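Consider the following assembly input.
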Amino acid sequence: MKRIVLLRLGHRPERDKRITTHVGLTARMLGAEGMLLASDDSGIVQSLEDVVRRWGGNFYIKNNVSFKQEIRNWKEGGGKVCHLSMYGVNLPDLADELKKCDKLMIVVGAEKVPPEIYQLADWNVAVGSQPHSEVAAVAITMDRIAEGEPLEKEFPGAELTIVPAERGKHVIENAGE
Amino acid sequence: MKRIVLLRLGHRPERDKRITTHVGLTARMLGAEGMLLASDDSGIVQSLEDVVRRWGGNFYIKNNVSFKQEIRNWKEGGGKVCHLSMYGVNLPDLADELKKCDKLMIVVGAEKVPPEIYQLADWNVAVGSQPHSEVAAVAITMDRIAEGEPLEKEFPGAELTIVPAERGKHVIENAGE
């Protein structure tokens, strides 16, 4: 099975708290195995771990990583690195190649990223060459390169499960073990 | 041509500033004609209008609308209304129907939405029945129902244009008129 991990660069505690949380939720929902946070923010870790506890699956969050070390390890393990921004090669021209990759690190920055990321990445990918939401970039990229239907993925071990409904909210509390 | 407008509910100035800006950027990038903001926040309007001025196109932002009035007007004009949340019918089961619709309002809330939106919407759509980023929900929905390749859309009248590049940033400043 394809492995995808997300690396979040340039996160500033407080200012980027909600955007980074949305990046993490999006990556989890679309099948990433975890998120590496290249900043120190235990609040992000807690809020995403709380989601995993209640909604299931095995998504992990690693706080305060060295991005260079993580990229080096990933590449040494045979992985590829794809950096999403508004400046790279447009996603439609690379999606087929990314889709073939079975071990992919997706890197997204906040407003500023360390310039060396453009060299460290195997691919610099633009998700449209327009002002950019990193949440949307992760969403569109992962949706387009997913195996099967990512929106039907199940998350084992959930305390809560939503039953799709035409009107209103239908949530099941699963019995504990 | 298909018309799509985005309606943003439940925006709280300050707390939701960046998420709502990302919702607007995403809607613009993927071809919405504008965003209706059902809260009063002129800062959002300014920052998105600034993007439009520099990066082109005709995306508009309407501040402090009445959501009920806007939905009523839209429906009277023959439009349909699709509310994205984590509770509705899963997107893969509705995307074909949404794609056929040539005048679509996409509604996204923040943490809380007025309950009547579930009744006012023609469709309540879940983008995966998992904890939810409204930015990702807009991105995936608009990408899946787009006509043609939304990431190759051009934005006329831009001061700045990005040239896709394998490494680094390549931005052209267009000559004024």
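Chain A touches chain B through 57 residues (CB under 8 Å). Ask yourself how this observation constrains the way the partners meet.
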